User: What shape does this take?
Amino acid sequence: MSDNEYNIESVDAGASATIPMEAGQIKKGGYIMIKGKPCKVLSISVSKTGNHGHAKCNFLAVDIFTGKKLEDMVPSSHGTTVPVVVRSEWEIIDIGEDDELTLMSEGGDQKTDVNLPGYPEEMAQEIRDAWNEGENQVSVTVQAAVGIEQVIAFKKVAE
Assistant: This one.
C-alpha cells in the first residue's frame, strides 16, 4: 500500500455531555441535570429515611443558561446525571449585525458560532457598548454544557 491509499478520519472521542452520579454525592454549588437542563445547585434539603428506606434529596437549582429556577426530588442512593460544564475565555474580534460574535482564544483559535447572550437581557447591550467604545479589548467567558455554548460574563481588558 502506498501512503496515498490511507484514509485517516478524525472522530469524536465519545466523551459524554453528562456523567452519572449518586444523588447524595451532589453538593451545593455543584451541577445537576433537571428536566434535561444543566443546572447549578442553589440548595439541597434531605428528608429522613421513609418507609421504603431511602432518604430523599430535594434540589433547588437554577438553569445555567436561562436563569430559570427548577426543583427535583431524588432518593439519595439513586443515580442522577451531572452535566460536564466547561468555561473558556475568548477575545471579541467582531460583533455582527445579527449579534453573532467572532471570537479568538489566546492560542489563536477562532470561533464564530456564539451569539451575544439573551440572558440576562442587559448583558448583550453592555457588551456591545464596551465594544463600540473601542479603546479597550473586550474579553468574554463562554460556558459550554450539553452541546450548548453561551456567553456568561465579559470584561474590558486594557491593552
In short: The longest helix spans residues 121-133. The CA atoms of residues 2 and 8 lie 14 Å apart. The mean pLDDT is 87.
